[in-house]
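To close the section, here is one more complete example, presented without commentary so you can practise reading it yourself. The ligand is zinc ion.
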Amino acid sequence: MLFNIKKSFFCSRTPCFFTTFAAVKIESIMAKYLILLAASALFFGCSGASSPSQESNAQVAENAIFDFSADSAYQYVVRQMEFGPRVPGTDAQRACADWMSNELKRHGAAVKRCESTVTAYDGTRLPCINIVGSYNPSAERRILLMAHWDSRHVADNDPDPSKRKQPVPAANDGASGVAVLLEIARQLGQKQPSVGIDIFLTDAEDYGAPDDWEGDRNEKFWALGTQEWCNAPHVEGYKADFGILLDMVGAADATFYREYYSDRYASDVVNLVWRTAAKLGYDKLFIDRSGAGITDDHTFVNRMRNIPTIDIIDTRMTGGGTFYPHWHTTDDTLDKISRETLGKVGNVLMNVIY
Ligand SMILES: [Zn+2]
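Output:
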């Protein structure tokens, strides 16, 4: 993603605003999602439909467990790392896509896999594999959960210039968000939520122009998979009440500030998520202060599909850095991933969903 607004928006919101106006909005959103909606047996597919496992849903309905498992989420990071960098156009891309599709199906989602070809900043034609796993496909009230699953093709932020043409391992910048969403899928498979949930694993987010690229550096070269989906969503005329994007949600010392575009397009959703985190005691992780503005998948969803969508993304406001320190380096590796952070992010999302 592009980091395009520095610290100028830091701390621009007042506590007064948050405790009055926002509180009312949060309550109305929460009330809305307590409405029980009938689950549907409508399944669909972009390249073949899969049907939820009714047997497993029935089996566990009686003693459903809502505990988001940080351990399981961590194992989902491990599994992705075993493929190697999931760079578009590589064998790892296809293998990981197959595995993710199967995981979603195994956990009862109706899965759509949409493959296309996108054009990168340098004219390279890239295979793009977007995967959407849906729960309660016919429910009108829907929440869109997103994470990019691709690994950046070049580690252009690496401190060692000789490594800047290598791909990013992408333990945090890619695998962490997917891991949280796959663990949520596992939970959804055990207990159908009352609302519809669409888990969108988007490809080719991180193929934007490298730092040393002298040609066009337009932001349109980021989030290529999401732009494909915005132009041709997995369901014609797709709508969701709101969306939540996860990006770099696994580092031990992560901090999530209220990202600027999230507040601009979807401040009610930011309020809901940050308030939920505070209730769980995670206010050191989800810091209720304005942060930077970042061009990421959510900016395209907001602009192109008018779905109010926020970005939970690890940005740093101390130490002079911008993102997680190993962002776009060859050091974005498994040892940076914390079960605790994955678990907290997962718990927040579970509490927003249920
Ligand atoms: Zn990235």
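Once you have examined the tokens, check your reading against these statements. The pocket of zinc ion is lined by residues 1, 152, 173, 206, 328 (CB under 6 Å). The two ends are 30 Å apart (CA to CA).
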